[in-house]
Amino acid sequence: MTEPQNRIILTGIKPTGTPHIGNYLGAIEPALRRADEYSEAFFFIADYHALNSVQDGETMKELTRNVAATWLAAGLDPSKIHFYRQSDVPEIFELETILNNFVPKGWMNKMHGYKAAIDKNRAAGKLDDFEVNMGLYNYPILMTSDIIIFNATHVPVGRDQTQHVEIARDIAQRFNNQFNDAVFILPEHVIADGIAELPGLDGRKMSKSYNNTIPLYAGREVWEQAVRKIVTDSIEHTHETIRETVLFKLYSTLVTEDQANDMASQLVEKTIGWKQAKDLLLEAVESRFSDQARKYNELLQNPDHIDTVLAEGAAKVRPIAQAQLAHVKQVLGI
Ligand code: TRP
Predict the structure, then answer these.
(1) CA–CA separation, 82 vs 76, rounded Å?
(2) pLDDT above 80 for 163
(3) Whether 45 and 148 share a structural domain
(4) What is the reported pLDDT for 209?
(5) 15 lines ligand 1 (CB under 6 A)
(6) 11 CB under 6 A from ligand 1?
(7) Which residues pair with 20 in a beta bridge?
(8) Residues 138, 275: one domain?
(9) Residue range of the domain that includes 150
(10) How far is the CA of 11 from the centre of ligand 1 (A)?
(11) Is 176 found in the same domain as 291?
(12) Number of domains in the chain
């Protein structure tokens, strides 16, 4: 275990789409809440992780600002938390190039992102590596570099990313062992309690790729459209089964335990139906996110300000990355 005073939290978010409440509840909000418990916090926009799919510059710029505005609207204070854009810290990529030489290719073959791409291709009758670029293949090594260049000890991620934090640990350990030098701290992942995976409107995991999200900073109209689409059923529910429904799961992450219990009882006793339950959920979404949505839209009115905040963030972390890289090179004798 690392000493409490050396606890460093770090997490990245890919600018691949407009953030949804699953991103917020599963990653952003818990990370912000936890940041205070750590001696240092690094939160960044993983734009080069997005580059294997987002290859239009204007789109990337826009998505990057959206994500930055999201974190700032959510309450991130850049004077307390290192907040930067990955591509502004080139040391990360230099370290990745070094790490590439210490990672067995077989480890990457087992990574779920790559495997999912292969499965998809096979299902479509295509060659395994059809449209798989090296950015996707090396994704976990870049993520490792993000983490270990700052000696992060704790990495909050969604459940789908835990494998990547495990591999970061393995890579760091392998390097340390080979050179018999504790260059890197071994990171561990942190899962946000209970909301590691929020269901989407159709009951599958809430994800941009399933198009089943509740957008984070929309307005009533968009929120309402999403909420009305939530799948419901006509089963006779018990107090246990009601808790497994998509609507209840979403509602219970936004309200107090008492409010959630109330909804469960009312649905089971049929004093309300799904329509009213959806009204309650919509109300909960509005009361939780309206103020932030306003702040978010204000921030986006002034993109230069967002760019400045990120540039200042990068300027503050680069010396830390440079020191780590210097240590690595010294160990390598380069
Ligand atoms: N791969 C993460 C995701 O898709 C984003 C990410 C990039 C990240 N680098 C990271 C998360 C480093 C934690 C630490 O969500």
Answers:
(1) 10
(2) yes
(3) yes
(4) 84
(5) no
(6) yes
(7) 215
(8) no
(9) 8-196+303-332
(10) 6
(11) no
(12) 2
